[in-house]
Amino acid sequence: MMSPYDFVVQQLERDTTTNNTSNPTYVYLTRPGRTLDYYKTAKAIDWQNQVLRTAPMQDYTLSLTGGSQNTKYAISGNLLNQDGIIINSNYSRYQGRMSLDQNIGKKFRAGLNTNYAFTKQTGIAPSQSTNSATTNIMYSVWGYRPIEGYEVDILNELFDEDVPGANDYRVNPVVNLNNLHRLQKIKNLYANAYIEYNILPGLKFRTSGGITSYNRTSGSF
């Protein structure tokens, strides 16, 4: 990430105009004591370091299989929990599966196979944007002013007064992410069962049925 000095030099090189109050010369060099050399020692803000984190992951699986001459079964469960590398983001999944085959006397046989999964995701995708590329969260991470010490508390305020709001939607990425509500829940159920009857040697009657259910809810604010 750029140092305060490199950032200001880059802004001045991008826009050399001096005819309005939004040009870099006015923003960075007109306040008392703010020469270009001042930014060589100005305190920097590493927005990337503020937003990204080391994200642990937990993954647990348990399975049981067994049976007897008349019964066979398999049961398994999985729990996955992973924090996102962006603050205030997480993904978790809970999944269970069971299969059963059972002989009922000499004529009947029945079976069941079912799988259920529940997933929950919070936080925003790094690439998500709406009507402008500047609403992309990483645009603010890499393009927000990395300099402390202005009249506005840039670390804790959502808006930087020197960002032109007409067509530039950069905001403080840390405040933005900590106050975003993004939640998605998915419930997925799949189950089928059968029953089989031996009518005669070489002739069987079998009937089966199943259900598939998918439910998704999401919220954002």
Describe this structure in words.
With 221 residues, this protein is α+β, with helices and mostly antiparallel strands. The chain folds into two domains: 1-42, no CATH class; 53-221, no CATH class. It has five helices and six strands, in the order H-H-H-E-E-E-E-H-H-E-E. Strands 1-2-3-4-5-6 form a six-stranded antiparallel β-sheet, with no helix packed on it. A hairpin with a 6-residue loop joins strand 2 and strand 3 (90-104). The relative contact order is 0.14. The model has no long low-confidence stretch (mean pLDDT 90).
Quantity of strands, as a count: 6
Strand content: 35-45%
Overall SS class: alpha+beta
Largest sheet: 6 strands, antiparallel
The spatial strand order of the largest sheet comes to 1-2-3-4-5-6
Helix content class: 10-25%
Low-confidence stretches: none
**Total tally of structural domains:** 2
Write down the secondary-structure element order: HHHEEEEHHEE
Query: What is the averaged pLDDT score?
Result: 90
Distance between the termini: 30 Å
| Number of distinct helices | 5
Assembly state here? single chain
Write the layout of secondary structure elements.
Blueprint: H1 4-14, H2 24-29, H3 47-51, E1 57-67, E2 71-83, E3 90-104, E4 108-122, H4 137-143, H5 173-179, E5 182-200, E6 203-220
Antiparallel strand pairs: 1-2, 2-3, 3-4, 4-5, 5-6
